[in-house]
Amino acid sequence: MASGGAQPQTYQAAGGHSAFRCCAQALPPIAPAWAQDTNIDSFNPKMPEDAKMLLSANELVYNQDAERVIVRGAVQINYGGYQMVAQQVEYSQKTGRIIATGEIELIEPGGNRVYADQMDVTDDFGNGFIERLRVETTDLTKLAAVTGERRNGEEMILNNAVYTACTPCATNPDHKSLWHVKAQRIVQNGKTHTIRMENAKFELFGKPILYLPVLEVPDQTIKRKSGFLVPKFSYTQKLGAGVSVPYYWAISPYMDATVTATGLTRQGFLLQGEFRQRFENGEHILSMAGISQLNRSSFTGNTVDAQETTRGMIGSKAKFDINPRWTFGWDVLVQSDNNFAKTYELSTFDGTTLTNQVYLTGLGKRNYFDARAFYFDIQDADRTALPKTSRPWPRFSTIPIRIRSPCSAAS
């Protein structure tokens, strides 16, 4: 190359198309800047060490004085399983920035597609700016934003973003989704692993039905994190309207708990708790709930619901492996009356008949052993309303023992 006032050199094939196999020194890997699963939390590439870049373009210009490399015209880049198409890609060695423009499309190894009009990032992908970002994932979710910005290698900021999931859109791109979430600003922090949505609106059939000034949730990299979960809403004639706010507490890698506070317009405050613990050879779940009813008159007279004021329950479920062949466990419930769990629709305890049991099972090479103690509890506010066929057996216990072997089966 000439120095001083040398002109930039242009390489072009006779047919208007050329192909180059480039090393990272000539043109740094561009596609990895977008090469993440549709997570907006990182531009860090994860490429094989022996990955090579295949670059195809109509024209390549290298200006030694300006230390600038430009490829333009039907640019195609294949690197580490990522495929990128753009009208022009420019790299400045002085500023250390990569600029891609014109109908940018990136296809990731997993099948996700990323579209943009312009991308301007640093060569270490720590900071950057994207215009008109659009992401289509293989699980039929879509994310779009007017602009996206990467700051300090930790934060990704999307402005005027829209998120939706649309199954018919996979076969009909012109199909409009029934719902979507719009946010004025979405910030994903790679350090705290959180996603914060500001001025978010949930829209159904194009009409906003829910407004959230600020909503912060863990990102997809976090499997367990303490914090509030999505509220739940309910309504029954006797309990009134209810709002449940659950809080999840990640105590340790093998222990967690969920505490749910529910406000009921007719009966007051219901508190629920569930404690879960894993052991080396099993697990145990402890459930609790309680309430002091404010309006017993809303229930039918002469029923247990109308007669009790303070009500509660404790449930325990466990299973332990004594050894690879023997298992011991139980599933029991104790409550203040025979209808509390059903009246307040407590999960896993609201059935008409509850089966409490303690069991021991064993499996040998030729034999099988099963011993269980049962206790049946029928939940009903008015016990006199039970049919005669079921009244003689409201509660009973038994210990069946089954032992099977090839000899007994033959006989």
Model description:
This protein is mainly beta and 411 residues long. The chain has 3 domains: 1-136, lipopolysaccharide transport protein A fold (Sandwich), CATH 2.60.450; 139-221, no CATH class; 224-411, no CATH class. Helices cover 3% and strands 56% of the residues. The chain has 3 helices and 26 strands. It has helices at 304-307, 340-343, 406-410, and strands at residues 9-11, 18-22, 53-57, 59-63, 68-79, 82-92, 97-107, 113-122, 128-136, 141-151, 155-165, 179-189, 194-204, 207-218, 227-228, 232-236, 240-252, 255-264, 268-279, 282-292, 310-321, 326-335, 353-363, 368-378, 397-398, 401-404. Strands 1, 2, 3, 4, 5, 6, 7, 8, 9, 10, 11, 12, 13 and 14 form a 14-stranded antiparallel β-sheet that branches. A hairpin with a 2-residue loop joins strand 5 (68-79) and strand 6 (82-92). The protein is elongated. The termini are far apart.
Structural class: mainly beta
- Total helix count? 3
What gyration radius follows from the Cα positions, in whole Å? Answer: 32 Å
Overall mean pLDDT: 78
Beta-strand content bin: over 45%
Reading the helices and strands in chain order gives EEEEEEEEEEEEEEEEEEEEHEEHEEEEH
Key structural traits:
twelve-stranded antiparallel sheet, lipopolysaccharide transport protein A fold, 411 residues, single chain, 14-stranded antiparallel sheet, 3 helices, disordered N terminus, 56% strand
